Amino acid sequence: MEREIPAEISENLYPGENVAFCIKKKLTLEAKPKFLAVTDRRVIYLDQKLLGRYELADIPYEKLEFVHFRHGKLGAEFILKSEEGKTLKLSWMDKKEAQDAIVAIRDALNTIAVEPVSIQKKKKLIGEEWKLTKPREFITRSLPMTRVVEVSKREVPKEDPIEKLKKLKELYEIGAITREEFEEKKKKLLEQI
Question: Which pLDDT band, with edges at 50, 70 and 90, does 1 fall under?
Answer without folding.
Answer: very low
